[in-house]
Each structure stands twice: as C-alpha cells, then as structure tokens.
Amino acid sequence: xxxRRKAKQDDHLEEPVEPQDVDGAGEAASDPRAxxxxxxSEVDLEEDxxxxxxxxxxxxxxxxxxxxxxxxDEASGQIQAVMLVAEDGAMELRPFAAPRHxxxxxxxxxxxxxxxxxxxxxxxxxxxxxxxxxxxVLPVVTPDGQQGQQASTVHGIAGPRWLLRVSTFGxxxxxHHEDGLLEQVLRDIVVVRGxxxxxxxxxxxxxxxxxxxxxxxxx
Length: 219
Hints:
- The chain has helices at 105-118, 171-174, 181-187; strands at residues 2-5, 38-39, 52-54, 58-61, 67-72, 79-86, 89-97, 122-128, 131-141, 147-159, 162-170, 190-191, 213-215.
- The longest helix has 14 residues, at 105-118.
- It is built from 3 helices and 13 strands.
- The protein has one domain (2-209).
- Helix content is 11%, strand content 37%.
- It is globular.
- 28% of the residues are buried.
- By secondary structure, the chain is mostly beta strands.
- It has a 9-stranded mixed β-sheet with strand order 8-9-10-11-7-6-5-1-13, with helices on both faces. A 4-stranded mixed β-sheet has the order 2-12-4-3.
C-alpha cells in the first residue's frame, strides 16, 4: 500500500458532463446499506486478517487491481481521506460522525453544492445506489497549467452514528456496476465509529497502518 501527500492539483480530470442519474443505480432500496458498507457491530473483524487494511475508523478489504492511497494534510500529516484507485476510476472516502437518530447528508449535500457554486462549478442532485447523490463539475488546473474540468458524483452512506462520504471519479461517477472492482471494495468496508462523543460532521480519525510507505509526488 502506498501513502502519499495530497498535491494541490491531484485530481482526476474528466470531460464536462451534464448532471444525470448514475446509470445502473435504479431506485434506492429501502435499506441502501443491505449489502454494505458495514458498521463494526454488524460484522466480525479478525485482528489477524491480512486481507484487510486497518485504518482506525475504517477497515478496507484489499482486492487485486485496486490501490489504496492515503491523503494527508501537508502541515499536520494527519490523514484526511482514503483513495481507492482502479483502472477505470477512483473513489475518495471520508468518514464522519453523525447523530444517532438524525441524518446529516442533506446538510452536507447542500454545503457541497454551495461550495461548487462558489468555485465556479455546478452541482445537481441525482438518484444513486445509496439514495440521493450529488453530481458535480468543478474547474481545475491541469498539471501542465491548463484550465480543465473535473466531474464527480458524491454519495452519502449513513450508518449507526456515522456518515461515509464517497466521491466517485471516472466510470463509477456515471455508471454504477454491482460487480465493479471499486463497488465491491466499497461494499466490504467496515466503519469503526467508536464510543467516544463527537460532534456531528466531525471527521472520524484515520491512522496509517503498519507497512505503509510514504511517497511525495510532484505536481
């Protein structure tokens, strides 16, 4: 597994797209999480399971063809997000604390849409495999200094006292495949919320696993 610091323009660039429902998503099931991702209380995690990457607040089952990258803050070194990278796209994962009996995805979605507008992009709600998602197109600067656009679809997956925010890029942003590599890794994720009190929307702590190596990628 590789660990890297997030570069300022470390983005997956896509051609501009018009907001549309994610193909293959269909109508959201009554229990969108019936097939995962899971809460730690719903599965038995073995401490010596070498097929999994223990990141503290998340446990990820590795699969051939999917690379796990950790994005760290430049100043503090604290891990902020996890990237799953495959040949046909990528997923950015961020776990947050949430109230026991109240969802926060509606508010988070509105905040993301507002931020997209402030950055000169656009956002629209679409129907995804986990309910209402947000499809966005944002202006970015490419590594060679040119202006470009980045397309993504952001999903909010609610569990017991947590929200997993999943930003998809490439093929998963427009086509949801139940048997896709990235989708399979996502369903196998286990979120470990912990028992400590946390404010709604506060990021769950992610830690660097043993054996990870840090690399510095140039812009």
